[in-house]
Specification:
Elements lengths: L2 E6 L6 H14 L3 E7 L13 H11 L3 E5 L1 H4 L3 H14 L4 E6 L4 H13 L1 H13 L4 H15 L10 H16 L4 E6 L18 H11 L11 H14 L5 H13 L3 H4 L10 H9 L4 H8 L6 H13 L3 H5 L7 E6 L1 H10 L7 E2 L8 H17 L17 E2 L1
Parallel strand pairs: 1-2, 1-4, 2-3, 4-5, 6-7, 6-8
Antiparallel strand pairs: 3-6
Amino acid sequence: MQAVGIVVEYNPFHNGHAYHLKQAKKVAQADIVIAVMSGTFLQRGEPAMVDKWTRTKMALAGGVDIVIELPYVYSTAPASDFAKGAISLLSAVGCESFAFGSENGSIQPFLNTFELIDHNRSEYDILIKESLKTGASYPKSLHYAYEQLSQKFPAPYIDLAQPNNILGFHYLEAAKSLGSHIKPLTIPRIAAGYHDVLKEDSSIASATGIRKALASTSSLQSVQNVVPESTFDFLADWYNKYNHFASWERFWPLLQFTIIRHTPSELTRYAEVTEGIENAIVKAAKTSNSFNSFMEKVKSKRYTWTRLQRMITHIYTGFTKEQLQSFEQPTFIRLLGMSSKGQAYIGKHKKDIELPLISRVAATNDAMLAIDIHAAELYNLSIEQGTKDRPLPKDYQTPPIRC
């Protein structure tokens, strides 16, 4: 059985994702689709709007055959490490290819871009350092260095100002650096850009646009046209139980407490918290009555919103620099759900899967997995405030979802 891999967050699963799934399977000529999906906290440093088990159900209902979890160590990491973790897992589970959505939509410019940077790495690094010295953020410095090189060696390249192109480049880079034979494929994004707001009478919207619409209107009907019926039902069921979707704004009381209980110097223990920002974080937490007002006080030219959110995520979950440095690669494959075809694939290829396949975590002693379980417990704690009679699934008790 041929498997194509995809890297997803499904926050939430929408019509654009359904299109990507079908196209990935078609272009790869694959029998099944395997999705490596972020758990409770995401790459932009924020909690997923609904838990990973609900998003797994959305994925399976939408046509994914196997859902495996991208561990917290990678799901909350900068793009290069996020990609490294995801591609490692898709390779280990036996995918012949992986397909990603991009603004570019053609694979050759990605290959050209990788070769440009790889063959001129020293000059690229010097240009980045020059830009950083001017006070530019790291992402802007990367883009500056890339622009300088691409003008010097003209060819069809990707636009690295586009978020999905950036991730696509890092997926390709990860596959090359890992020495994986997994084949890269890309599917053009349709209709809605990554940051686009919801458009009236459109059947395609970005996940960002959907979340913004739900946050501003609290009306599920506002997104009904842009998500599959199954996603709409899962979202409605969640909202009926908890009366809100997860966000840092909702988590603010517990997050504020977590920050304030630390001294500034203690905050520097946590992953991605760079020296100098800790005082601003504590000061802002003490004087803010919402997450948004807190972020407005700490954001600066040096620190992007996403970078700050990842710091905050690690502070909330207690994930330290020491823990981060102790991991070099994924140590297991966590199975979240599978279709009947997915079950058949695992039955046929189980002996060839390169990492331990975990379906039940209760008896598993793994440091990376322990971090995932801890993060899920803290996520659940914020969701369940005031709704203790409707608890979320516990990681150590929940078996993979089968459909």
